[in-house]
Amino acid sequence: MIVEMRVYHCLPGRLQALQERFSATTLVFFEKYGIEQIGFWTTLIGPSNHALTYLLKWQSLAERETKWNAFQADAEWIAKRAASEAEKMIVERIENVFLTPTAFSLLK
Question: What global pTM score does this model have?
């Protein structure tokens, strides 16, 4: 198993718009493409409260490449993402890392 951690750093005041886009739109496309989420979090205490962090579960990097690329190329997703940012951009930058569990991890 591989876990992908993605951190979306939003422009000030745009975190709510990102959360709405995930809950109403993005998660529908994740389900369509079999993208499995572990969870979503906002920052309670840290350097910025304008971030959304989430984890995705993959069986392999090949699975991730196939499913993520199909999701990103979906014309309906592209249109809905653009519409959600028609008035103002939401995300300033995205960080992502790929994690693999240790032998002593409860999640494997």
Answer: 0.92
